[in-house]
Write a structure and sequence with these properties.
alpha/beta, about 30% strand, about 260 residues, 2 domains, single chain, 7 helices
Length: about 260
């Protein structure tokens, strides 16, 4: 049984409370995951099997405190390594777009370390409320502009932001074809301006994507099922824009295209 501890709270997949206390007797609350994510915002369901109170927790990552209700928002604990990696790649003074920002793990971890500007877009009103709280809770080097809108609305009223970002981060899988083109509209038309696109892919799709000229890296960051992996596909926005067949190109290899 996998156990994840967040302070004195344990999150489990199977109801074996005794195993939790064998490993950490000081545990004050145990939450058990119930089924798969559901709804428009892919929110999971957890049940309190030991202890009292709400399902609101404070999760600490890279010296950042993130407050959220685990029953109201989607949060990927498994991408903590990716958040650290990208924060290390970023340079001061960059302009970054983070779509599907959730409660703010990517924007907050990055701006904790680097003096950058980030536009964070999140449509789920519960997640957005926690995003604002988390921005207040953490002392950041950079700045974050938080927008409670659907990602497709981003450039409707602010055309100056088009093709203005040095990096674009899209941590939500299964985001749909329209969002793929939105990423291209956001990134600067210069080489080495990078898009980080997360999705679930089969092993053979990974090999195919690595051969595409605008894909600079495909990094596995977890598994979904046998031979299906969660990956971060890194795309050079400048090379993509330079293609003569830009209007016909697709971010090939993804199951949702």
């Amino acid at each position: 049984m996998t156990i994840r501890w967040i302070g004195d709270v344990a999150i489990i997949s199977k109801e074996r409370i005794e195993e939790v206390f064998k490993k950490k007797p000081s545990t004050k609350k145990i939450l058990k995951k119930e089924g798969n994510t559901e709804g428009e915002y892919r929110v999971p369901k957890y049940r309190v099997v030991y202890g009292k109170g709400m399902t609101e927790i404070i999760y600490r990552e890279e010296h950042c405190d993130l407050l959220f209700d685990i029953n109201k928002v989607h949060f990927s604990f498994s991408l903590s390594g990716e958040r650290k990696r990208i924060a290390q790649e970023v340079n001061d003074e960059e302009n970054i777009l983070c779509l599907f920002a959730g409660v703010g793990p990517f924007p907050i971890v990055i701006t904790k370390k680097k003096k950058v500007r980030i536009v964070a877009v999140e449509n789920n009103p519960d997640a957005f409320r926690y995003l604002l709280k988390n921005l207040e809770m953490n002392k950041l080097k950079g700045s974050v502009k938080a927008l409670n809108i659907d990602a497709e609305e981003l450039f409707e009223n602010d055309h100056e932001e088009k093709n203005s970002f040095d990096r674009v981060i899209a941590p939500a899988p299964k985001i749909g074809k329209n969002f793929a083109y939105l990423l291209i509209d956001a990134i600067k038309k210069e080489r080495k301006k990078k898009i980080y696109l997360y999705d679930f892919c089969r092993a053979e799709e990974i090999d195919f994507m690595k051969r595409l000229p605008w894909v600079v890296n495909v990094k596995k960051c977890g598994s979904y099922s046998p031979r299906v992996y969660r990956v971060c596909v890194e795309i050079d926005g400048g090379i993509y824009h330079e293609s003569k067949n830009y209007s016909k190109l697709k971010l090939m290899g993804f199951h949702w295209l």
